[in-house]
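Hi, here's the filled form for the chain we discussed.

Project: internal
Contact: R.S.
Residues: 150
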Amino acid sequence: MWGRADRAVKMLGRNIPSILRMSKEVDLKISRRLCIKPQEERQLQPGRSHLRVPGHKPTDWEKRFLLWAGHFKKPEDIPQTVSIETIRAAKTTLRVKFSYVMIALTVLGCVAMVVRGKQAIKRHESLTSINLEKKAQWREEALQSTSAKP
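And the returned structure, exactly as it came back:
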């Protein structure tokens, strides 16, 4: 049965994968003729140039990124096309700057909390005393509500 299939494939001029063939004598080479496009489609289209200037036309946000990252001084200095690597470098620079700002804000927040805590200690305020006062107030309200009921 497999011999007939091999003969049919050879007659058609195509090779099929060895998994389907199940014979060791046949060449393992796979024909890729069906994957190749005809020559007419390969020819250049008349409206398009096959040589392109490598680059990317930046959007408004990407232009802002380029300015904020310091790659260009003015918006007028930015060319029509910019390389993708330049835009990626600008975004990376902005990511680093943003992380520095976040680190600085975190440190400032920590310092502010330490200062406020020291001021609260000077006023003799603590979370424990505030919680005890709230619980005493709740107990008084509970006693008043039970005594007010007939």
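Let me know if anything looks off before we file it.
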